[in-house]
Request: fold
Amino acid sequence: MKRIGYLGPEGTFAERAARTYAERIKITEPVFSPYPSIPETMLAVLQGKVEACVVPVENSLEGSVNITLDMLAHEIDLPIAGEVILSIKHFLLGRPETKNNIRVLVTHPHAFAQCYRYLRENLPDVEVQLVSSTAEAARRTREAPPGWAAIAGEEAGARYGLAVLSPEIQDSPGNKTRFLVLSREPVPATGRDKTSLVLALPEDRPGGLYGILGVFARASINLTRIESRPAKSELGDYIFFLDCMGHAALSPLREVLDDLKGHTVMLKILGSYPCAPGVDC
Reply:
């Protein structure tokens, strides 16, 4: 693995996550390629343009990145090969003379939500323009007339020549984003692994999900995340994303997954991969 795709342009948190992963697994002379959207980033792996990609999947303040989950469930078959968790610090960026005369704010929707308290108190009447990434917000602000500002990381500000107008404007100092690494090849068990899967129940009935969760509980397998998403069929139909401890090829999770096949109408193993450093697993 040498080529890694990420949600661009240059300077995004996804790029930092990609570089963090490459350093962690000691890739020699990695090549990083930005893509304009999460679907295009993931499809670049399927099309052989890169060997792996890094995409955001959840944030501690705003929850899941729905397009990532939907792509994993419905559009692609790529195993998750790893995860990266980054602390996210948002900065208000722009030209120095803009600080007291901000008329337009360029931001990614999640960044806007993660800084909502600051914006409500300090920029309540500003015009907001939404873009595909924080680095794209910084890039557009660099090319815009005076009076424009962006929410982005400090690295993006430096890369696009913007001044810090206000540092660390996120609503919580514990703001973190989890990224997934997708590749064409699964990774072997390491002894401290996590498995992600998505499933659908055969019918909507009382206790249906409880029965599924009980299979994990009886095997003493810890579930670290569970979330529902529309199944994209009928209103009220849902699929469930689960993260759990263990590797799908090893006991006891292997037997649990075999058991689940008889209780679900869809069961897709998204990947077994090493837990991020610092995660208790």
Remarks:
- The two ends are 26 Å apart (CA to CA).
- The chain has a mean pLDDT of 94.
